[in-house]
Amino acid sequence: MRQKSPSMLALGMLLLAAGTLTAAGAVYGGEKKGKAEMAAAAKVTIDQAIKTASEKVSGKIIEAELEKKHDVIVWEVEVVTAENKVMEVYIDAETGAVIDWEKKKAELKQERKRQQTREHKG
Fold first, then answer.
1. What is the reported pTM?
2. Does 65 lie in the same domain as 24?
């Protein structure tokens, strides 16, 4: 049985890594292109979305991101409230209207656990 040389093994790993990077680049590049297209279609700026979210939920803005939800381009703005709850405010990127606001799913899970613990103790 013939043993493979270390240089051949290294070459094979290099080719595998290059293929992985190319595939990742295509996905990431496509994501960036999608974001650019959404930004071009959005009539509401990030500053306007943040202002609208601040009027709806008071607190500190920690993130604002343009997303597509149910074929609608929306700004998702995350706000940390005075109670240290993370709220997400969804703003229509075309009209500027608040579509929805909710606690982050992680916050909801924690609240459910606390509620269940209280119920079991009480």
1. 0.62
2. no
